[in-house]
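Obj: model holo form, ligand = FE(8)-S(7) cluster.
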Amino acid sequence: MVVKKELEEALRTHPCYNEEAHHTFARMHLPVAPRCNIQCNYCNRKFDCSNESRPGVTSEVLTPEQSIVKIRAVLEKVPNLKVIGIAGPGDPLANKETFRTLELVKKEFPDLTLCVSTNGLALPDEVNRLYDLGVRFLTVTMNACDPQIGEKIYDMVIWKGIKHTGKDGAEILMKKQLEGIKLAADLGMLVKVNVVMVPGVNDKHIPELVKKVKSLGAYIINILPLIPVEGTNFSNMRAPTSEERKTLMDECSIDAKMMRHCKQCRADAIGLLDNDRSGEFLHFGNCKSGCGPASEPLSININNGTNTAVASNDGNMVDSGFGNATKFRIYSTDKDGPKYLRTVEINTATEVSGNAHRDHIGSVIRALGDCNTIVVKEIGHLPSKILESEKKKIVVFDGMITDALYEASKSD
Ligand code: CLF
Ligand code: SF4
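Output (holo structure tokens):
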């Protein structure tokens, strides 16, 4: 693939796209994108630990403005910073904050290279906007181009507000990923395709996937090993051995250029790929003065440590109204972010009306006694009035629980 003349210098100093650059030039991730529009079976963004280094993990979520303050501070201590990346902790294109951030970075730091990493679902709709904002380095994480394999990797896909599972969800996602890769490559972006290698699921299929994305214009391929994470559907799967991954990369290198020095970075990584310095630059979320780290960390606080009840049957989505919920998932919400505590089961076997209806609402509120925020997909007038009189906060939300908890924290 021919690299446009104006991208040569950016390519020379990009630590991920150019192996020779990774000992010399640094990148910085801006964790401005907490929400995601799909659920991969290997991803858990609920755990938020500064000692854990993997995609999806961040110690704080920043606003676009906070991230600019942080770049200024980082540049003072990391003068070899060349690339600003947005890689989560959710999907950048599912968060409007990503676009505002890119706009601000482009304006204040025109010499820094912009890089975005996405699952690709919204890419066809957003690729021109990314291009206009100056993004020339784009990563799409794509794990299969066969829906029968994809359905084993993705738990669900939310497309135009509707949840799709199984082959249906995988098919929608793959179609958008392939379309997005081609559009981006045709615009002249350098597209990297990240593939998570899951032994026994997609490992045999990856060479076919690599050929496909290469034919659409992908510039480089990065095959990452699965990291089995607690609390995910793949927690009991095994990671590939380094020998298995090397063999696969060697096979695929016949068809495409391979990246072999990836560090599976955190969503708030800073510095050289081999030397993450994100721990030196924490707590910009609360920085009021705009001069550097503040004393308190930014965290997803909901009602100062009291609990939140989420109406959810499947444990992933806010999928029930207040009146017909059979399960409420209870989360504690202290400064370390939301933590799942327990599930409260509600008996809705009998249809109730009148006073019995009022009693039912009362019994649900009592069952959720330690929660002062209630998240539901919908709620009627009567329960809404009763909850308000009990000083409970109601959040109506249609989407994933992780995103609902984030929204609830913002509306405090
Ligand atoms: Fe970040 Fe990704 Fe851009 Fe690099 S990371 S958005 S391309 S600036 Fe790099 Fe980290 Fe591997 Fe990603 S080592 S996980 S490949
Ligand atoms: Fe997690 Fe990224 Fe998958 Fe979203 S696209 S579920 S953030 S791995």
